[in-house]
Structures are given as C-alpha cells and as structure tokens.
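hey so i finaly got around to running the thing on N-acetylglucosamine-6-sulfatase from Albula goreensis. pasting the sequence first so u can double check i didnt mess up the copy paste, my clipboard has been acting weird all day
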Amino acid sequence: MANREKISRDMSMAVLFGLLTCVLALRCAECGNPGNIVFILTDDQDLDLGGLTPMKKARTLIGDAGVYFSNSFTATALCCPSRSSILTGRYPHNHQVRNNSLTGNCSSPAWQKGPESQAFPVYLSKQLYQTFYGGKYLNQYGRKDVGGVSHIPPGWDQWHALVGNSKYYKFSLSVNGKEEHHGDHYDKDYLTDLIANRSLEFLDKRSPKQPFFIMLAPPAPHAPWTAAPQYENAFKDIKAPRGGSFNKPGKDKHWLLRHAKNPMSNNSIKYLDNAYRKRWQTLLSVDDLVEKVVKKLEQLQLLNSTYIFFTSDHGFHFGQFSLPTNKRQLYEFDIRVPLMVRGPGIKPNQTLKAPVLNIDLAPTFLDIAGLNLSMVNMDGQSFLYQMAPSLRNGSARPYFLVEHTGEGHPGSDPTCPKLGPGLSDCFPDCVCEDAFNNTYACVRMLSDKNLQYCEFADSESFVEVYNLTSDPHQLVNVVKKVDPALLQIMNQKLIKLQSCEGKTCWDTK
Ligand SMILES: *[C@@H]1O[C@H](CO)[C@@H](O)[C@H](O)[C@H]1NC(C)=O
Ligand SMILES: *[C@@H]1O[C@H](CO)[C@@H](O)[C@H](O)[C@H]1NC(C)=O
Ligand SMILES: *[C@@H]1O[C@H](CO)[C@@H](O)[C@H](O)[C@H]1NC(C)=O
Ligand SMILES: *[C@@H]1O[C@H](CO)[C@@H](O)[C@H](O)[C@H]1NC(C)=O
Ligand SMILES: *[C@@H]1O[C@H](CO)[C@@H](O)[C@H](O)[C@H]1NC(C)=O
Ligand SMILES: *[C@@H]1O[C@H](CO)[C@@H](O)[C@H](O)[C@H]1NC(C)=O
Ligand SMILES: *[C@@H]1O[C@H](CO)[C@@H](O)[C@H](O)[C@H]1NC(C)=O
Ligand SMILES: *[C@@H]1O[C@H](CO)[C@@H](O)[C@H](O)[C@H]1NC(C)=O
Ligand SMILES: *[C@@H]1O[C@H](CO)[C@@H](O)[C@H](O)[C@H]1NC(C)=O
Ligand SMILES: *[C@@H]1O[C@H](CO)[C@@H](O)[C@H](O)[C@H]1NC(C)=O
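ok and heres what it spat out for the 3d tokens, dont ask me to read them lol
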C-alpha cells in the first residue's frame, strides 16, 4: 500500500516535472523543437520617423506574423552602451560602458573581464544552444590593444564580427579569431549580404539535435550609408518628414539644444534629406537579409520552432529641434526603437502597448531557452508573457530609466576648430549633437501618466519634463507648470532607478 502510494506519487512527480521542463524550455508539442532564436539588430534605425517604412518584407515576415511593440525603448541612445545593455540585460550604470571609446569601457579589458563574461550568449551556450554571431559588435571591438581579432567573446561558437564601427565595404572581420580582409566587390564583400550568407551556411551545418541562436547585426542604416548597387537609385523623391519638432527651436531645453542654429541652414536640410534617403536604401538589403533567413528556415522546416526578433540599438533624428542628424538625445525620436517578434506561441497580427526595454531582450532569450531567470544578474525582465500569454504569466513595469553620458572632445571638435572644448559631433554647420554636459538621466512613465522627467549633470542642474499625452512631440518643457509634488515624486523614482540592480530595477510599484 505504502509502496503503491509512493510509486504513484513518484509518477505524478515525474509527470509534473516533465510538464515543468516542457513549459520552461518550450519543448511542448505545440512548440516543436526547443525554441530556436534569430535576433536581428540594426544600427541607428529609428521608429518614430519612418525607419521601418522601407522594410516591407520584414514587416510582412516578422511583424505581421507576430507582434509589433509600439512602446519599445532603449535605456540609452548611443551604440556601444546600448549594445552592451542588450548583451548583458543591464542598465548602463551596472555594465559601466559609458560611451563609444575604450576609456569609456567600450569593448575594454574591464568589460571583457566583467560584464561580457556574464552576457546572454554565455548562458545560451550552457543551455547547449549552437550560437552564431555575424556583423557589427561593439565600436572598439578588434583593436590590437584589447586583444585584437583573436578575442572571441565567450558563448559564441561561430564568430564573424566586424572590427570597429559600421562599414559596408573595405573592412576586417574576425572569423573565429582570424582576421579576414574585405574589399569593395558587391558580390564578395557587401557586409549585410555577407552575414546573411554565412548565417545560412551555419543553418545548413548545424546539428539538428540542439537548438540554435543566430545574431545578425548589419551595419545599416548607420553612416556611411553605402547602398547595394541595385538600390542606389531607390526612393528618389523621399525626404525626411516635416512637422512635429522638425526645425523647431529648443529654447526651453538644455544648453546644447538652445545652441542649435534655428532655423537650420538649407545646407543642413539638404544634408539630412540625403541621409534619410540613403539610410532607406541600405535598409533594403536588410529587408533581403530577413527574407533570405525566413526562406531558409522554411526550407529546413524550422520556421514554426524559431523565434525571430528584429530591433535597433537606438533611434535617430533628422532636424528635430534643429539638430541635423544623430542620436544621443532624451526625446522620443532617439529612445524609441522598432521591435517585432514572431515565433511559437505568438499569435499573428498583434500590436502590444506594454513598455519593453532593450535590457529585456537578454532575459527574454534566456526565458525561451528555459533558464531560471533568478539565476542571472540582469536588470531587465522577460517579455515572453506579453507575446505568448499561453506560455507565461507576468506584469508590465510602470516606468523605467533612460541614461546617457555625454561625449565631448577635450580640445575643440576637429570639424569646428573655432568652438571651445567639451563638445562633439558638430556637423554639419557646426551644430553640436553631444557634449560632456549632455549627461542626463530620465524616468519615463507609461502607465496612468504618460510622462518624462529628466535631470542633467550640467552647471544648471537642468530639468526637463514632458506630458506626452498633451504634447507627443515634446515641444513644451512643463517643469515650471506641473505640481511640485509630482516633480518630487519623479525625482525620488529617478534616484532609486539610478542605483537599482537586478530585481530592484523592476520592483517599482
Ligand atoms: C513544424 O513544421 C514541420 C514541417 O511542416 C512539421 O513537421 C512539424 O510538426 C511542425 N511543428 C509544429 C510544432 O507545428
Ligand atoms: C493580418 O491582418 C491583415 C489585415 O487585417 C490580414 O490581411 C493578414 O492576413 C493577417 N495576417 C495574419 C498572419 O494573420
Ligand atoms: C569600466 O568598468 C569597470 C568595471 O567593469 C569600472 O570599474 C570602471 O569604473 C569603468 N570605467 C568607467 C569610465 O566607467
Ligand atoms: C551571397 O550569396 C548569394 C547567393 O549565393 C551570392 O549571389 C552573393 O554574391 C553572396 N554575397 C556575398 C557578399 O557573399
Ligand atoms: C533656402 O531654401 C528656401 C526654400 O527652398 C529658399 O526659399 C531660400 O531662398 C533658401 N535660402 C538660401 C540662403 O539659399
Ligand atoms: C528558480 O530558482 C529560484 C531560486 O533558486 C527558485 O526559488 C524558483 O522556484 C525557481 N523557479 C522555477 C520555475 O524553477
Ligand atoms: C497564469 O496564472 C494563472 C492564475 O494563477 C494560472 O491559472 C495559469 O495557469 C498561469 N498561466 C501560465 C502560462 O503560467
Ligand atoms: C568616454 O568616457 C571616458 C570615461 O568617462 C572619458 O574619459 C572620455 O573622455 C569619454 N570619451 C568621449 C569621447 O567623451
Ligand atoms: C556645457 O558645456 C559647454 C562646453 O563645455 C559650456 O560652454 C557650457 O557652459 C556648459 N553648459 C552648462 C549648462 O553646463
Ligand atoms: C497631461 O495632459 C493631459 C491631457 O491634456 C491631462 O489630462 C493631464 O492632467 C496632464 N498631466 C499632467 C501630469 O499634467
């Protein structure tokens, strides 16, 4: 009797355990093989100013076949810090990558020893995922003084990473630790096509017994905006969108914006329209990349067991508040990013409004891989429950942090020798897009209130506050108009978030 009870208890434990493992690793019949993942990360692609418009195939094959997130943000609007957040699932104040230079920890020895050794690929590899990386990694990756091309970040089985910042031709790659030089022949060298091709080879050669993770980071649509030959004449009549904050003065804003030329010169406008058109041309090759990968997955009968994520490291602007072109600002156009996901358990044709941050990507990948997230030290949260409520429960965060450490030159900006020190990216027309004192932290709230509160580390301790409900283009800084009690609450939330770590970053009721 006792024995039979024990056996039946053991059996129900086994059934329960089987169920748990199944749910955890998404190995259930409904989902097929354990969740494979393809992650496509573009460079500088905005959402707010039409960045997804040229990508018809990607929208059909990913967004329409799954979810669009209409409130997807980066925790910081600069390449290297944002990519470091994506890899680690941490806010910049925790991975401590401050800017795009080695001295600011971009691919630095401290980064390699610390945060990079705890980034998501390390955990995926422990879960026996076969991993592939192709494309731009971190701006300073591959420099001789920090390990050169022989440094392969842990967790990657196949490593095809760009040395340095975005380029389309005439670059070097680290191919599994060996340097590979490329010239400027479209058929052999065009980086976006090259990484697409290599990912297809990886899919052919992989073992069918274990799941895979593919990360593709094309250079597009970052400068120098080199289109594939067949797309050089596309979008002839396209111009950057007017309206909203385009060519508006930033007179009630922080120091840098008060110093932008307003109205912009015709030269600046010509420059930004050209940038806008050329960026779209480069995105057509990314659109082809998406199509190639999806077709290959279909051919291999893997499409129904594979999650495909598409996003960008941060947004971009074209004349907003009279800043010609760049990122680095706290406004919606720079912090909002496209995010589309398809995959097992995700119903097609959904648009989700819950806020999602770039630090949530890593925990979401690990959640799909069946990892218990309390074992990892990440500030983000899995958003799998948002996309696939049949698989997971969860709740949305009511507000989050955006932080940026401004970049400057110790002397004058090389393109504008007449300007004093402390500024950077002063092009065109000597309008500067960043400065040491463009250092800020914001709380962005998207629950009952649609509000942004930002504090600057400058000589004025400048504060900007926007009511996004009444003022979606952030034309009016309402710091002097809102209830001081509300400012105090926002200030308290900001202080808490700026020192948060792990769970304390999302236990924010
Ligand atoms: C996925 O598609 C393949 C081929 O069409 C099929 O054999 C398999 O059962 C499908 N899996 C799921 C989970 O639908
Ligand atoms: C999504 O919705 C559109 C328009 O309502 C429809 O044409 C399309 O077939 C839907 N796609 C899917 C995958 O359900
Ligand atoms: C770089 O990161 C290390 C820890 O990984 C930290 O000690 C150091 O202060 C960081 N440097 C900067 C400039 O933040
Ligand atoms: C990618 O593969 C296609 C099809 O095989 C080929 O035509 C093209 O030249 C390749 N491009 C690169 C850059 O390898
Ligand atoms: C700038 O362009 C506008 C509109 O095209 C034109 O009216 C104006 O004369 C131009 N200004 C200069 C200085 O060329
Ligand atoms: C995850 O790990 C924590 C801490 O070890 C444990 O309390 C929790 O039950 C685990 N969750 C699952 C779903 O196994
Ligand atoms: C979500 O929570 C509800 C209520 O606790 C529970 O009945 C349901 O099974 C949970 N769903 C998942 C996918 O965990
Ligand atoms: C990057 O950050 C480091 C450390 O704070 C700083 O010394 C350096 O000047 C910064 N680089 C730029 C270009 O601002
Ligand atoms: C910001 O930095 C610039 C350049 O160093 C300086 O001229 C300006 O006074 C500073 N403004 C504030 C508000 O700190
Ligand atoms: C923001 O604007 C909306 C719409 O005008 C208004 O109802 C709300 O009270 C405002 N919020 C704050 C905090 O002022």
